[in-house]
TrEMBL record:
Protein name, per record: NAD(P)-binding protein
Transmembrane segments: none
Residue ranges annotated for the NAD-dependent epimerase/dehydratase domain, each copy included: 7-264
KW Membrane (keyword) present: no
SUPFAM superfamilies: NAD(P)-binding Rossmann-fold domains
Family, similarity comment: Belongs to the NAD(P)-dependent epimerase/dehydratase family. Dihydroflavonol-4-reductase subfamily.
InterPro entries: Epimerase_deHydtase, NAD(P)-bd_dom_sf, NAD(P)_dehydrat-like
Keywords: Oxidoreductase
Superkingdom classification of source: Eukaryota
Pfam families: Epimerase
């Protein structure tokens, strides 16, 4: 492997990380991928046998990213690491206590990783963290959807710790906001050798790769699967209508590692234009006649039912300018996602 391209990828079995890993392997990076178990490592190794065999890809087990010193060992490599890509989020099967089960682990997971890098991997030049539009969005302005507002990297979710304890949606948004802020605060106060980049995607659609199962679909793709499978029998309200294709987001992660000007920046990574659940159903009914009877018809072509200027949008110009991104359109993304879901459906039948 070429020197200067050695990266730690956390949360490697995740939906976004699977696409990031595919690009890293193709571009000749040496990768240490962290997962929660040996079984997850073996599943990924089976997808990249050559990379494992030639020593390009190896694995580290981190069962709980929020545990103290969780990353102390995996950040140490010989030759040493150049970059860290942090896509992992704390794992919650059942959130009983929002503070203990979600908010504290999110903040401690981010801060703990950065402390491990600072203490044990001084060669690391840059850390890229997967954040979320949840850290940008003002949820009090979702209904009606903040007419005329253009969200950008300058916006921060104004959520308080107290509000984050009130319900699961606020807990999730709070965890993403406080974790990202913890990253920026760490760099400011600790002045490590590395700079920081954060990426803030909204809904993430796109094909499933690396032999993931229907049960492990990310939240955004569960929506497409719900319509394809007939589980969702009506066109639901859209909620957040901003989105990105996972392949574009994965490329953003890799470019954020190596483009010098990206350092110290937050990027709002999102596709041009908006999507609605009605749009998704329209696309599925058009391209997949074999499941047309399962997909609700709704009101074809109705979209959001609002005029331009009557709902918030996002500004992706910074990601285009600095990271050189061009974004896929909704039709391509939904069709490719649906194809991959239907393939999985066939396999599991």
């Amino acid at each position: 492997m070429s020197t200067g391209k050695r990266v730690l990828l956390t949360g490697a079995s995740g939906f976004i990380a699977a696409h990031v890993l595919k690009i890293l392997v193709a571009e000749g990076f040496w990768i240490r991928a962290t997962v929660r178990s040996d079984a997850k490592a073996k599943a990924i190794a089976a997808v990249y046998p050559d990379a494992v065999k030639n020593g390009q890809l190896e694995f580290g087990i981190v069962e709980d990213i929020a545990a103290p010193h969780a990353h102390d060992k995996v950040v140490v490599a010989d030759p040493p690491l150049d970059y860290v890509l942090h896509t992992a989020s704390p794992f919650h099967m059942n959130v009983q206590d929002p503070k203990k089960d979600m908010l504290d682990p999110a903040v401690n997971g981010t801060r703990g990783l950065l402390e491990s890098v600072k203490q044990h991997a001084p060669s690391v030049k840059r850390v890229v963290i997967t954040s979320s539009f949840a850290s940008i969005l003002n949820a009090d302005k979702l209904s009606p959807p903040w007419p005329g507002k253009v969200y950008s990297e300058d916006d921060w979710n104004p959520i308080t710790w107290e509000k984050a304890l009130t319900d699961p949606s606020n807990t999730y948004r709070g965890s993403k906001t406080f974790a990202e802020k913890a990253g920026w605060d760490f760099v400011k106060t600790e002045k490590p050798n590395f700079d920081l980049v954060t990426l803030c995607p909204p809904m993430v659609f796109g094909p499933i790769i690396n032999d993931q199962t229907l049960a492990s679909l990310n939240t955004s793709n569960q929506r497409i699967n719900g319509y394809l499978s007939g589980q969702l029998t009506a066109v639901a309200p859209t909620g957040v209508h901003l989105w990105i294709d996972v392949r574009d987001l994965a490329l953003a992660h890799v470019r954020a590692l190596t483009i010098p000007e990206a350092g110290g920046n937050r990027f709002f990574t999102l596709a041009d234009g908006i999507y609605t659940n009605q749009d998704i159903c329209d696309i599925l009914r058009k391209h997949f006649p074999e499941v047309k009877d399962r997909v609700p018809e709704g009101k074809p072509g109705a979209g959001l039912g609002l005029k331009e200027g009557e709902y918030f949008v996002g500004d992706n110009s910074k990601s285009k300018k600095i990271l050189g991104l061009t974004y896929r359109g909704l039709e391509e993304s939904v069709v490719d996602t649906a194809k991959s879901i239907l393939e999985l459906e066939k396999k599991s039948a």
